[in-house]
Amino acid sequence: MQEITRALISGEATEADIAALCLPESYRGVVVRKGDVTLFEGMSSADKDPRKSLRVEEVPVPELGPGEALVAVMAGSVNYNTVWSSIFEPLPTFGFLERYGRTSPLAARHDLPYHVLGSDLAGVVLRTGPGVNAWKPGDEVVAHCLSVELESADGHDDTMLDPAQRIWGFETNFGGLAEIALVKSNQLMPKPAHLTWEEAAAPGLVNSTAYRQLVSRNGAGMKQGDNVLIWGASGGLGSYATQLALAGGANPICVVSSPRKAEICRRMGAEAVIDRSAENYRFWSDEHTQDPREWKRFGARIRELTGGEDPDIVFEHPGRETFGASVYVTRKGGTIVTCASTSGFTHEFDNRYLWMNLKRIVGTHFANYREAWEANRLIAKGKIHPTLSKTYRLEDTGQAAYDVHRNLHQGKVGVLALAPEEGLGVRDHELRARHQEAIDRFRVPGAEPATAT
Q1: Which CB contacts under 8 angstroms, 24+ apart, belong to 347-355?
Q2: What is the pLDDT of residues 265-277, one digit of tens each?
């Protein structure tokens, strides 16, 4: 791995140089173990600690199949699916790997007693399998996390509808929180040249998810002038939804949980911000009962910020805690677009406010290749910016996942894999200089901004 790292860091290695590098027999990856799935039995979700289940282990390099690529991972990032995997919720991910493994001899590689996690990466192509023509060794890439087989007609209009659609690094093995990752070649996209490795690794999953959820015709189909209520507007998903709303001429109403997060939204350009903690919204009077009076108080506050208008779109991802309020406050004929459900998967709402006011609930899940490509293109052009707040070493991924689980983070947290330090990998210094302030705005106090090296 040291020889590979030296070649990649030099910035001078050619395609032939990279292709000539010897692949190691093993690499380090962040894993959960099948033997640990009962580790947190009987504990509440909040008490489960990813630091106890996530391990960094040396694992064998997987066999490269047709249509696939092995990528040297310079950096990855933590998403909420990493947290779910680490606490074995809603189900241990080994069930996904077992089912995938039964589909073909090649897929059987994924069914192992360990699961290498991670659904984002920025890195360099090391090898490509038979049938890969668009990518070659030495290409600097990011990867989106949609893994599809496309053997069914169902997926050819929208690949997210492929019956064999899976999320790489969550429902497949060999993910991006590692020194080497195995991906399908149609997961690859060009690395934005003005970003460091860790910055480029941060947007993939959440930016693509927010793009489909908010902008795409498969989601809310946002248009200019729309009022868009965004829960967790400074977080991993919400920070991209806020930027996409602003870039698309919409009016984001950003809901956050602290003054620090409210300030980040304002720095992104949002004017309508609600600090739900400061205003003490309590949508549930007890574990089983919602409080419609709080929905109404929340709706009145939104109208204060919009000149009397209700949201055209509600960007939903907290789920159980907020969904009743989301349905209530959406304007007549408006859209609640939902994914993730980080506060609970069982949603409860008063259907009278949905049915009698002709509102729609649209479910979305990640993005197809075209949507992910368009979302990455906006990053590459400097229209949307990474929301990286902090970077951890591979060895500290457990702490990174713990921080995300406890909502102690802003935006996204990155993980260095083969990159020995932050600040490496920038190719377009001029574009970076034009957007440096925006690139750094999520950095936590005291954290050094990445230098353009």
Answers
A1: 347/319, 347/320, 347/323, 348/290, 348/320, 348/323, 348/324, 349/323, 349/324, 350/292, 350/324, 353/327, 353/328, 354/327
A2: 999 999 999 999 9
